[in-house]
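User: Good morning. I'm curious how NAP would be positioned relative to this chain. Could you predict the structure with it bound?
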Amino acid sequence: MTSVTRRAFVTGITGQDGSYLAEFLLSKGYEVHGLIRRSSSFNTQRIESIYQDPHLPHARMKLHFGDLCDSNSLSDLMRKVRPHEVYNLGAQSHVRVSFDMPIYTADTVAMGALRLLDAVREFQQESGQQVRFYQASSSEQYGKVMETPQKETTPFYPRSPYACAKMMAHWATVNYRESYNLHASCGILFNHESPRRGETFVTRKITRAVGRIKMGLQDKVFLGNLDSKRDWGFAGDYVKAMWMMLQQDKPDDYVISTGKTYSVREFCEMAFSHAGLDHKDFVAFDARYLRPAEVDLLLGDCSKAKAKLGWEPTTDIKGLVAMMVDHDMEAARREKTLRDAGHAVHNRASHD
Ligand code: NAP
Ligand code: G4F
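Assistant: Good morning! Here's the predicted structure, ligand included:
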């Protein structure tokens, strides 16, 4: 008997989570189809190491142009790819930016999820093929938290345009599950980081600064609120939970977290001290990084995921900080070498 290759369709494949998820799915034997936005410059750096030329006969990773703001591209791709699993990770995912661009954020995050859900519903109805759907919900939805720790039954209280948009995407997913017999699950993921984290999120901004300060490429790092607390895990662990949700007989919603929380200040302390530096000498305040409404404390209780999925985080905060700082020290070392080489070349040229 021949087994059918599972096909997964991933939005946000060029992002932090998309790149880890694509690697994970390829390792499980999936054919991975990623949605990418047309851009005038390359936006595929995070997946370069796993990209395969789609013309190769056995290529299992394929990229397709499209956009969550464009329903037609989503419907067309459902018919073309005929996916067994769809992971909706695409988003304008920066909370601070969502205050500057609320309408665009709602369009990609809320309407984007609805457009994709509807394309999946339509394809499932037309083809009779069952599709499993994952929605990237967020701990940001707990906002001004109603209880601590936060679990699946904790009421939401969003505090940003981003979180409001994620609320709509979350409830649309639940509604499609209940209305159209769609195997649709929401992962309510707490903050997760890695060396691939975007450089304007606070952890990566700090670890990039630690590397560059250590190498003499930067003097200070300017941050906003150091008192807010987050439950930070490792992105590589979290994408595994997404896949596990879609392997269950029944769709459901799950909190994914570490169960530990630290302030931004504590993250600074840990990151700088890993490089033998004192954060107090290098962290400065800039009000531009404050938000009109802040989420003060996030701390997740992932007992349901532990019991039902058998999922547990493998990386603690110490391991995460070390992984990110070590990576960014190396990146800064390379940057310095290049800068020095450029300088040397320039000097030599001027002597030639
Ligand atoms: P990320 O690094 O910011 O990646 C976002 C991805 O979405 C990128 O691939 C981006 O493409 C794509 N995208 C943006 N607008 C799009 C559009 N209009 N159409 C199609 N794709 C679009 O985010 P992440 O950290 O990997 O997070 C993945 C998902 O989980 C997001 O939905 C995020 O909101 C959610 N989430 C993240 C966390 C976390 O702590 N990381 C926690 C909870 C939930 P480009 O490369 O072209 O910009
Ligand atoms: O790293 P952040 O920007 O992450 P935030 O706002 O918690 O959002 C991230 O996690 C969510 C899950 O809860 C995701 F849904 C979302 O997509 C994103 O991945 O900020 C963390 C904290 C905030 O309290 C912020 O005010 O750090 C504080 N902060 C202090 N200075 C800063 C800065 N944040 C950023 N980005 N830049 C600063 O300079």
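The first strand starts at residue 7 and ends at 11. The two ends are 70 Å apart (CA to CA).
Let me know if you'd like a different ligand tried.
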